[in-house]
Design a protein that fits this description.
about 375 residues, alpha/beta, N-(1-d-carboxylethyl)-l-norvaline Dehydrogenase, domain 2, 2 domains, five-stranded mixed beta sheet, 7 strands, nucleotide-binding
């Protein structure tokens, strides 16, 4: 496990509680010692006892030596540099799993794309994990589900079998694009929710933004080749709900500080951990523009970050300044005015769960 922050340490605990021997890589030797000797990570998971099967080292080389699977949980903007350091020591056939939910700012690439390019490995050796996964809740062993995605179903299943225990269950799919973009985009909507929460708006406002945010997420992901039902599953709707409603969410917290009037630089200073949504806003909007996808909520988040929009003005606009009534979904102006648009995402989510995280068969 490369990265010993809250999520990396929590996922290491998931794997160890599932029966694996886990070696953490921590940059700071004192943190590595604490994990190994005291079975604690007091900086990121205070009060949590870590399994005996977890150890840690400050040496990346020692951490990955002999590993059958390498999990990556580092800030998305530092991934490429870490992969360059990892590449000479990665053994042939080792699987690589991304736990990160961001896009690279300078290239707009998803994390799996950065992994494939930098390590020069076959996509079948790469997997990504996503879902409603607030680290501290899972570390406290509250029941949670996630989805493991890979272009290779065999790889996804292999990783999912490792990431299972009495409180954590992993489903699988092969829609890497949808799974990754779900994890990225929900962060941006969570920042918007935090902003309106900080301003003092109530539940109606937040529910409206969550619902319209899911539309933006789905339209964006599908335009890039994702399956729409993935965004109605754990990596989309599930993660969106958890991230938007919880004070444990770093992106929600960052947005709330913005809504309370703090400037961007001050928010970054106050955050002890990375809020991936703040770094992903600009590259996501560039990708959306290239595909002709409208993302008004995300646009307004960027305006707040840039200081060109007063946080209290984000909610009245919600998704458009156009007074002309619009269809709830992009195809509603042309067809399907039967009122089924609200039900379909939840039906797809239920179907996905019934089918073990896979797309339902169609007649």
């Amino acid at each position: 496990m490369l990265g010993a922050g809250s999520w990396g340490t929590t996922f290491g605990k998931i794997l160890a509680d599932g029966g694996s021997d886990v070696v953490m890589w921590a940059r700071r030797p004192e943190l590595a010692r604490e994990i190994t000797e005291a079975k604690r990570n007091s900086d990121y998971l205070p009060g949590i006892n870590l399994p005996m099967r977890m150890t840690a080292t400050a040496s990346m080389v020692d951490a990955v030596r002999g590993a059958s699977v390498v999990f990556l949980s580092v800030p998305s903007q530092s991934l490429r540099d870490n992969l360059i350091a990892l590449r000479p020591h990665l053994e042939d056939g080792t699987l690589v799993v991304s736990l990160m939910k961001g896009v690279e700012r300078r290239s707009g690439s998803r994390m799996s794309e950065v992994i494939r390019e930098t390590l020069d490995i076959d996509p079948s050796r790469i997997a990504v994990a996503s879902g409603p996964n607030l680290a501290l809740e899972i570390a406290r062993e509250q029941p949670t589900a996630a989805v493991i995605s890979s272009e290779s179903l065999e790889t996804a299943q292999t990783v999912a079998l490792l990431a299972r225990n009495r409180y954590f269950r992993s489903f699988v799919n092969t829609d890497v694009i949808g799974t990754e973009f779900g994890g990225v985009l929900k962060n941006l909507i969570a920042v918007a929710i935090g902003i309106v929460d900080g301003v003092g708006y109530g539940e109606n406002t937040k529910a409206s933004i969550i619902t319209r945010g899911l539309v933006e997420m789905t339209d964006f992901a599908v335009a890039h080749g994702a399956q729409p039902e993935t965004l109605s599953g754990l990596a989309g709707l599930g993660d969106l709900i958890a991230t938007c409603q919880s004070p444990l969410s770093r992106n929600n917290t960052a947005g709330r500080l913005l809504g309370q009037g703090y400037q961007f630089d001050d928010v970054v200073k106050q955050m002890q951990q990375t809020a991936e949504g703040l770094a992903s806003v600009a590259p996501v909007l560039e990708l959306a523009k290239a595909k002709g996808v409208a993302m008004p909520i995300v646009e307004q988040v960027k305006q707040v970050l840039d200081g060109t929009l007063d946080p209290k003005d984000i909610a009245p606009h919600l998704t458009t300044d156009d007074d002309e009534p619009q269809g709830e979904r992009s195809n509603d102006d042309a067809q399907d005015r039967s009122g089924g648009a609200l039900w379909r995402p939840f039906k797809r989510a239920l179907d996905q769960l019934r089918n073990g995280g896979r797309r339902p068969r169609r007649d």
